[in-house]
Design a protein that fits this description.
single chain, membrane, 391 residues, mainly alpha
């Protein structure tokens, strides 16, 4: 009875409103639900008023984010007449140029890097439907990982200093991205990639890999919602074990078990969000719209400079206050475009990244990544999907 009611409810919302498990609205809702659920043991630390304020900020931004999914905004805003290929390319180019120039101070580096990224994207788009693309991406991912290990002389998850050092290492970013893409349609690649990303020591990369794989197969009708739920439980537990292993290598003494660590991390995320809401001054782009700005959250909110996770809408609220609702509307428009126009593989990765950002919080790197997904979506033509059960 309960199972049948769940299936009827799931199908009703999917058919009437398009709210399947793959919808960005549902993904963000699930992400926040997990954070609040895991933090339940610490709810007493907040008080009713603080909890209501956090729920109001999250729910308000999510509602505004959702608006474009329920109206035909393309025609209302005449986006169908706008050359989105060119527009997304211009936005992506400006964002990359500004990011590199801000970090390096070199005009030449900014131009060369932006040009190189566009070249790589066009090579990727041109060969996207090649039968060899998954093998090539898998090889790139494995070689990048091995090169990183040889460079640092150790497996990152066993050495906290090395793990922190590779946070912005291009080899790690290339490896995680390439392995995630290659693993979508090859279970053998998925298992190898899972092992590699686990020992790399970044929980977000493992989460993106698993969720992208699940979304891809869900959108292709190869896996049921029930199996996704069961694998989701395993994923949460595994991420807790990873968190415990990472802390063990850091030299810090924690008496919490892996489940308690997950609960505490969720509480810390919400505590940071609470402090952001109570912070009296908007920072007008210093956090989410500035390269490396996320490190300021720790300094401003907790008194020490560190990359602090503050949930998806936290950084935007710290930057813009109530005006974050305007950003959420634009965020929703872009996410709908990616959701509707992307090839299944591309969107599956975007959806997985979106879920991971529910804890991390929007930052400049994510904004560039989102524009990159939009640019690829606008320049890539869909290919018919062949359904085949994998489970």
């Amino acid at each position: 009875m309960l199972k049948n009611n769940f299936e009827k409810s799931k199908n009703y919302f999917k058919e009437k409103y398009g709210l399947g498990l793959d919808n960005p609205i549902v993904i963000i809702f699930i992400g926040y639900f997990l954070i609040f659920f895991l933090a339940i043991p610490y709810f007493g630390e907040f008080g009713v008023n603080s909890l209501l304020k956090m729920i109001l900020v999250v729910f308000g931004n999510l509602v505004i984010f959702s608006i474009p999914f329920f109206i035909n905004f393309e025609k209302k805003m005449k986006l169908d007449k706008l050359n989105l290929k060119m527009f997304s390319g211009i936005l992506l180019g400006i964002s990359m140029f500004f990011g590199v120039f801000t970090l390096s101070g070199s005009l030449l580096s900014a131009v060369l890097f932006s040009g190189l990224v566009f070249l790589i994207l066009h090579i990727f788009i041109k060969n996207y439907y090649s039968e060899k693309i998954s093998k090539i991406m898998f090889l790139i991912g494995v070689v990048s990982f091995l090169a990183m290990v040889l460079n640092y002389g150790t497996i990152p998850i066993t050495n906290y200093t090395v793990r922190m050092a590779i946070s912005d290492d291009p080899l790690r970013l290339i490896s995680s991205g390439a392995l995630t893409f290659a693993s979508l349609f090859n279970f053998g690649y998925f298992l190898v990639s899972f092992a590699i990303l686990a020992v790399t020591g970044y929980k977000a990369n493992v989460l993106v890999l698993i969720v992208a794989f699940l979304l891809y197969n869900y959108k292709n009708n190869k896996i049921s919602a029930k199996k996704i739920f069961l694998i989701g439980i395993f994923t949460v537990l595994f991420l807790g074990i990873m968190a415990k292993a990472i802390l063990s290598s850091s030299g810090q003494s924690w008496s919490l078990n892996f489940l308690e660590i997950l609960s505490y991390r969720a509480y810390f995320d919400l505590m940071t969000l609470e402090k952001i809401i109570l912070y009296s001054t908007a920072l007008y782009g210093k956090i989410a719209f500035t390269p490396g700005g996320e490190s300021l959250i720790g300094e401003i909110i907790h008194g020490y400079r560190h990359n602090i996770t503050s949930t998806l809408f936290g950084p935007i609220y710290l930057d813009l206050g109530y005006y974050s609702l305007i950003f959420s509307l634009i965020f929703g428009i872009i996410s709908k475009l990616i959701y509707k126009k992307s090839d299944t593989k591309i969107y599956s990765i975007y959806g997985a990244v979106l879920l991971s950002m529910c804890e991390i919080g929007i930052n400049y790197g994510f904004l560039v990544t989102m524009l990159m997904f939009l640019y690829v979506s606008e320049n890539l033509h869909k290919k018919p999907i062949i359904n085949k059960k994998i489970f």
